[in-house]
Amino acid sequence: MLSEDKNRQLTQVGPGTPMGEVLRRHWHPIAGIDELDRNAIKPVRLMGEDLVLFQDLSGQYGLVDRQCAHRRADLSYGFVEDNGIRCHYHGWQFDPQGHCVAQPYEEQVDPQARLKCKVRLKAYVARPLAGLLWAYLGPLPAPELPDWEPFHWPNGFVQAVFSEVPCNWLQTQENSIDPVHFEWMHANWSRHLRGTLRDAAGEEGGYAPTHLKLAFEEFEHGFLYKRITADTDERHPLWTIGRVCLWPNGFFLGDHFEWRVPVDDENTLSVTWSFIRVPREAEPYTQTRIPTWVAPIREADGRWLNSHVINQDIVAWVGQGRIADRTRENLGASDRGIAMLRRQLFEDIDAVQAGRDPKGVLRDPERNQRVVLPSDSRDFFLHGLPLADYQRHPKWARLLNHFIFHAGQPDWVQQAHAEATGVAIQPMQVLDL
User: Fold this and answer.
1) Fewer CB within 10 Å: N-end or C-end of the chain?
2) What residues are paired with 61 via a beta bridge?
3) Which of 241, 269, 268 is nearest to 255 (CA)?
């Protein structure tokens, strides 16, 4: 367990807070590139700050204070021009770096633009990569925006999914270093929801293979968890390769990324980046536009959705409260990874307060080129399978035929998937693992 003070240190994310300053040293995905293609301005709340993200008519991206520096009007109702965003109230215009570049009436009465030279909005760095727009809120110079190798895998249909989750970022990220939850939260709970957890006589049966052995390792870009279950052994990729707790707030499972972006102390933006390999018959396939969409997290009656992988995770996260009370928990042997994660975060706080970079920050551009992460799926994603073999595969067929991660995949995304792969998405009532 943690003391109340230490829990606050890890969960508060606003400017000037210990963890807020650590997280500001990293890049965070905050929107889809295609979102701004559809609407050039988007209000964003990030680590307790209200901002507006935009793409001006010259193609530049900006991330600035949501309130105009004139009289605090809401810039999310402004409009973009060739060099920045213009306030709808009195026409003041700001470039992506936050400089005031136009003050229509003031320029008439003050040709020397003395006021304009003094005015500047708070501005942060926004960059595109892999279909996403990324934000950096820390001190300059900004570190490298991590260029993970899966962003460059060929012949794949990529989509990015956003969900707004009403709880603190840390309890969502602790999920990424918790292997045993997969056995119960996903495999066994899904069987229970489908009514297959008990046999015909009503006796308990049909449980997923239990975990027998766990290991946790640190590496440059985060931590690995490895596991052996009753149906595997030490030769299995889940033990020889494992899964990646991507530092500081990501998760890489070989076929998709997840990021848990702090909105503020009590809310998190869940971001999923999914790669679906097209069958060999559909090669070569080049995706010209990565679709991004917002997934629901509640049923019509207000209950949490629990049919898909990340929806099930969300039920656990929000069930811990807006900010989990870690003074009342009782960690066990399966939680060694949780303890490692928290210990590293405290070390990161110390590093930042001492003027050093925290873990996971990349500064060398030469080393930030298609960075390979541990993945038991890499060979499949690089080389693919013929459709007949694909459809027979116990794992990949599930991903080809269903979008298992989030409920609510829009029809237009399903159509894009079908056009890319030649396979139509099938309805899925409850996850089947």
Assistant:
1) N
2) 55
3) 241
**Longest Cα–Cα distance in the chain:** 88
Domains of the chain are: 28-136 (2.102.10.10), 149-360+370-421 (3.90.380)
- Amino acid making up residue 361: V
The C-alpha atoms of residue 129 and residue 140 are separated, in whole angstroms, by: 19
Backbone Cα Rg of the chain: 23
ω into 18 cis (within 30 of 0) = no
Q: Where are the beta strands (DSSP E) in 166-255?
A: 211-219, 222-229, 243-246, 250-252
Q: By three-state DSSP, how is residue 189 classified? A: helix
Taking the mean position of all CA atoms in its chain, how far away is CA 341? Answer: 18
User: Would residue 326 be called left, alpha or beta, if left means φ above 0 and alpha means ψ between -120 and 50 degrees?
Assistant: alpha
Residues 261-318: tens digit of each pLDDT: 999 999 999 999 999 999 999 999 999 999 999 999 999 999 999 999 999 999 999 9
55-90 pLDDT, tens digit each: 999 999 999 999 999 999 999 999 999 999 999 999
CB neighbours of 368 closer than 8 A, spacing ≥ 6? 144, 145, 146, 147, 362
Of residues 426, 425, 429, the one with CA closest to residue 407: 429
AA letter at 240: T
Place of tokens 């060929």: 154
